[in-house]
Design goal:
Elements: E1 16-23, E2 30-34, E3 47-48, E4 53-60, E5 63-71, E6 74-76, E7 84-86, E8 92-98
Antiparallel strand pairs: 1-4, 2-5, 3-4, 5-6, 5-8, 7-8
Length: 99
């Protein structure tokens, strides 16, 4: 007697295109660093437009992500961020929630 195998439905999280941006017209380089890239200071460079707006889009799974910008060798908080988490260095990381 043959039995039918029951297939479990796949539970997949929807990856979302998530944009990060920073207005820094005088900056020479801007990188995005966070827990999504193990705080790597060089893996996510932002590109700038003629108005000095730096941008990058990442494909992220739903969740919470801590991040900061690394601008010309110095950490900078995202001025458009409204949610923060304290970090072990006495400052705060920005919090991006992807739904």
């Amino acid at each position: 007697m043959a039995t039918k195998s029951k297939k479990k439905p796949k539970v997949t999280e929807k990856v979302k295109r998530t944009e990060f941006s920073l207005s820094a017209p005088q900056a020479q380089s801007v990188f995005l660093s966070g827990d999504f890239n193990q705080w790597d200071l060089s893996s996510h460079p932002l590109k700038h437009d003629k108005n000095g707006m730096w941008k990058i889009s990442l494909n992220l799974n739903p969740g919470q992500y801590e991040y900061r910008f690394f601008v010309d060798g110095k950490w900078q908080t995202d001025p458009s961020c409204s949610d923060f988490v304290e970090n072990p260095f006495g400052t705060s990381n920005c919090l991006k929630i992807v739904e």
